[in-house]
Amino acid sequence: MLYTIIYDFMWRDLRLRGAEKEVFAVIYGFWRKSKAPMEVPIKTVMDITGLSRTAVMTAKRNLLDRKLIAAHETRGKPSRYEVLIPDPLENRMGADSERWPVRKLNDYPSGNHTGADSAPKINSYKKNKQNEFNYGTFSKNQSNCVRVRLPREKGRKRSPCRLSKSQYIITLHTDSKSGIPHLHLDCNRADMDNCLNSDHLIGIRAKKAAEEVNRLRNWKRTEDWFEENIARIKQDCLAVLSGMSAFSWGQYSTALETKGYTVNLKMDASMVVRGYTVQSGSSVYKSSAISCDLTPSRIQETWEKMRPEKRYGQMTPKERVAFMLSDEGLNYLFPFVITVDGKSYEQMIPGRVARVFAEESREAEQSFPREESNNIFKTAFLLFANQVDAATTFAQNCGGGGSAPDKDWGRDENEDDILWARRCFRKAREMVTTPVRMRGMRR
Asked: Which of 29, 36, 251, 259 is the most buried (most CB within 10 A)?
């Protein structure tokens, strides 16, 4: 098991405290064996002392500044360490005359600082007497002048926070900008029994306590509010982008402001937008927090990807029909291909016309058989595409007995797409279906 020995001179003479004492004890233990620079990895020091990497590096830097240790570099990085002071333990078990030169050579302030003179007798303590503390385990061996620090155990218990037995004050405070009320809790570190309240991971523990209060009272967490607001703002931003025929920051900001947001554009000296924030209520969100696709460097690329002509080719047939019939696709042209008698006919149809075709087709399916309703749809499409001869031939081949279009058939000058599409469907029903003749009663 890894351990380190902490001698009396380290804290009495060298005045080492905390992490510096722990790190010096580890380096001293490795150096004392050979009296030569030894490699002491940071990971080894962390395993022995239980300190963090930052604490170990800071302690080494302070020891180097005090010239208690020296570092030998390898490839520009310190790898081996040695102790610069003479070894105080070389003559510690001898007489006073043998210990004095060591004391003078080390230039200690006064008195015997090697720990041997003032060490209690062996019989004054029981052998291997153990003392347990919250922050580690110490033991006194037979020399009674050293302390052995054992590694810290994970999951060790600490003293809890006894707020109910402590002096505290709670004040209600409102934020100066947003006006949102929140509480401040000031508590005395020492409780009424003169015991210290533990501040170990106090921020994480306080957050967990707040989450527990939210759970007991069925309150919504701050993270949930944040995620909901981000999702709502992102949806509105994408909706604004999809409705823009050409991208511009002015139109983008104005459209968001009509939805109740406040947009603040941040420009550089050349008037190029480098960032922006969206304020919803009293909360302000950066564009990078909303979505990486909505940042100034990528928002125009996102807008180009949202164009219908970009998305239509990547959709499935079912998605294409849904997009054509949606409000977003009303003013866009979509390619429509139909095959009649082995020949393909293609026509660009606006989204509003596609919606009329869908409505008329549903009415035809309710009034006529399925096959006949399909023939009506094809005939109407050919008439809409000004393929009158093909429509007449197809209607006759499928058994239609209605009247064919006359020579003056065509679209009027003042007729829009919707009226023209509905007139084509009415004519297609006359061409495909056979009119029922009503016979009167014979005399």
From this structure: 29
